[in-house]
From TrEMBL:
Protein name as annotated: 4-hydroxy-tetrahydrodipicolinate reductase
GO molecular function: 4-hydroxy-tetrahydrodipicolinate reductase; NAD binding; NADP binding; oxidoreductase activity, acting on CH or CH2 groups, NAD or NADP as acceptor
Gene source species: Leeuwenhoekiella aestuarii
CDD domains according to UniProt: DHDPR_N (cd02274)
Cellular location(s): Cytoplasm
Oligomer status and interactors: Homotetramer.
Domain Dihydrodipicolinate reductase N-terminal residues, every copy: 1-98
Length: 232
């Protein structure tokens, strides 16, 4: 598979290494420029910066190149990208987190939220810890987790780094080179239940994005990692 990489930072470089090991070829790298000649790529993978994601994804869709995006912090424009994909009969997957482990954790989180939904003695909160270079807060993964809880909760929204009645507090911590840790806690007067996903490195995110690209390259439509991994 010929891959164009949009964003050649920590994730772009990890994807290049793992994709090459899987027999793929990176035919184009776009980093801090808008030279959108995709060099006959079969698929594009975007791990760039929040401000660049919409332009990058749009350029791929307009050029007819299937695009996998893991960039976080731009989701206010997600529906615009869905419309553009449909208009161009293109192919697009966004995931706040491509790792298989986190996608299992997303399902576990929803199951736990269902079980806890009528237990009013428990207060739910979340902590995400990432490296000091991260531009957005809370993490895209934390937002997906919060949405999974809100579907089965009396809480009406999430709030960042503060406490409000009927809202899920997400605490965002930035420490050293932490790849990404997400913890969800249900706490009552008598006990607490905690579930946690801890990434040991970036390989899981990168491999998941490559698997998504392999899956997407011959398709049209808008998909999620749930489709790729066939999770019910
Ligand atoms: N969905 C997932 O599984 C994961 C998502 N991420 C997200 O991916 C994004 C990238 O993460 P990292 O690689 O750690 O960041 P990074 O800062 O190491 O790399 C971003 C790269 O994008 C480049 N860039 C800036 N403007 C650009 C433009 N207009 N077009 C193309 N590239 C441009 C920068 O020069 C930099 O090399 C972040 O939004 C992060 O939150 C990170 C890990 C996993
Ligand atoms: O910026 C990162 O590094 C990560 N970003 C993603 C997010 O915002 O959820 C995924 C992962 O946690 C690493």
């Amino acid at each position: 598979m010929k891959i164009a990489l949009l964003g050649y930072g920590r994730m772009g470089k990890t994807i290049e290494k793992l994709a090459t090991e899987r027999g793929h070829t990176v035919v184009k790298t776009i980093d801090q420029n808008d030279d959108y000649d995709f060099n006959e790529a079969d698929v594009a993978i975007d791990f760039s910066v929040p401000d660049a994601a919409v332009n990058n994804i749009s350029a791929c869709l307009k050029a007819g190149v299937p695009v996998v995006s893991g960039t976080t912090g731009w989701l206010a424009k997600y529906e615009d990208m869905v419309s553009l994909c449909k208009k161009n009969n293109g192919a697009f997957i966004y995931a706040s987190n491509f790792s298989v482990g986190v996608n299992i954790f997303f399902e576990l989180n929803k199951q736990l939220a269902k079980m806890m939904q009528h237990l009013k003695d428990y207060n739910v909160s979340m902590t995400e810890v990432h490296h000091i270079h991260k531009l957005d807060a809370p993490s895209g993964t934390a937002i997906t987790l919060a949405e999974g809880i809100l579907d089965h909760s009396h809480n009406t929204d999430w709030v960042l780094d503060k406490e409000e009645t009927d809202k899920i507090t997400i605490k965002a911590e930035r420490e050293g080179e932490v790849p990404g840790t997400h913890t969800i806690k249900y706490e009552s007067q008598v006990d607490e239940i905690t579930i946690e996903h801890k990434a040991h490195n970036r390989n899981g995110f990168a491999l998941g994005a490559i698997i998504a690209a392999e899956w997407l390259r011959d398709k049209t439509g808008v998909y999620s990692m749930k489709d790729v991994l066939n999770l019910s």
